[in-house]
Amino acid sequence: MSILSKKHFHDEAAAFAYLEATLWPEGPTCPHCGNADAGRITRLEGKAHRRGVHKCNECRQQFTVKVGTVFEHGRIPLHKMLQAVYLMSASKKGVSSHQLHRILEVTYKTAWFLTHRIREAMRDGTLAPMGGAGGIVEIDETYIGRLEGQPKRKRGGAQAHKNTVLTLVTRGGAARSFHVDGTRLADVLPVIRANIRRESEVMSDEASWYRWVGKEFASHDTVNHAREEYVRREGERVIHTNTVEGYYSIFKRGMKGVY
Questions:
Q1: How far apart are CA 179 and CA 130, in angstroms?
Q2: Which of 32, 166, 205, 254 sits between 20 and 30 A of 187, alpha carbons compared?
């Protein structure tokens, strides 16, 4: 049975039970006063009450498991919102609002609003420096789309008419992408300095704008793609930029195929 066939994706009562078991493994907790005493919280049932409503006997407030979550004030059934969360988190190339509009059978406007709420909930809101002692951060740049008002070809290089994206990937961890003006040292070095810990090991290709990186961090190793070098081993160290290259393959297919 596929994951999307599970009951909590199709039945509202099961959806509430699933979310309560996930967020309240020890029993309901009042989001208003923090009361977690099961004896002081009453589940309100019957036709006169909304589904999943509890009443806290400490602060006298009513609440459901949706309060304080991305689902609060949602005007579509909870089981459909759970489907949206699953599809967005399981689709590594992304899923468009139009696709959710068709799958969930809601309006495009509703799907668009829902996707933005879910993406905001996924964002951790922090930009602490990446890497650390013994950590490896791979750096690379790519070109995508066309700059507004630019012809397909422009003097200054085959990619001069495209947007430049700089990406930092912690090997085995998270990635960050930045839209930069170009690949001059003044464009890329401030981003690298602000987002990578100084004690990190940095790896990149042989591009000239990365030459000064080694002076800023614990180490800087490069692979020479021009000579068809993609992986190099030095003892136990494996030097490559394949992680960030793989990230770009997914990133571009998401941008071109979904968004």
A1: 18
A2: 254
